[in-house]
Amino acid sequence: MTPDDLLRKGAAILSAAGVPDPMREARILWRATPDEDSAAFLAKIEKRALRMPLSHVLGYRDFYKHRFIVTSDVLDPRPDTETLVDVALQAQFTRVLDLGTGSGCILLSLLGERPAATGVGTDVSQAALDIAAQNAAALDLTPRATYVKSDWFSNVQGSFDLIVSNPPYIAAAEMNDLQHEVRLFEPTGALTDGADGLSAYRIIARDAAEYLTPNGWLIFEIGPTQGAAVTAMLENAGFTDLQVIPDLDGRDRVVVGKNT
What we know:
By secondary structure, the chain is of the alpha/beta class. 38% of the residues lie in helices and 21% in strands. The chain has eleven helices and nine strands. The protein is globular, with a radius of gyration of 20 Å. The chain starts with a helix and ends with a strand.
């Protein structure tokens, strides 16, 4: 079977499984298969046909300026989250805390742009922290990135100029509406709080000032309908200079507050 025949076969399998743009994805999987190994290529196609995320089949996701190892133990980095990185880089910081770090994509992207900065990434999942550490090593950032198993601030020590977080913000009632790739393959705890989607924001807004330097910044990723609620939490906690910033699609995506 020629490469063109394999591509057509792969695309047909993906199309039958309801995968959008099947030929494009077949080409991506073919390019990721060494030595034109048809069996390996078709094995990848079958995994994707089960609606396993493309990043999980490939084992990586390109995010911001780097390539990150991705598995089912971490949230798949999304282009929307690059807005958070862009906004955070407008702040002055030498110490950054990333709460719920997952793959480490936010923290490591920030450290990659600030050679003098150091940071801490926390997660309740040791499996996620292991992936983040692998990504730090791959990007030669291990000396500047520390990982701590922590339920939000429970094991955090020290103070920071910047705290960032992309917490689980999908409400439990919305979970069944998610794409198969997300609902079936990504870690549930990274997607939803099992409640109204705002639980993590309440905890972080309440406690963040204790870990922020004066005039330090707290920056969240949010769901597109949560801007007003999260801004109100920060205002009630004494944060100032509040902003809600849209992503490239014009949807509310980031909330910013300054510690006083």
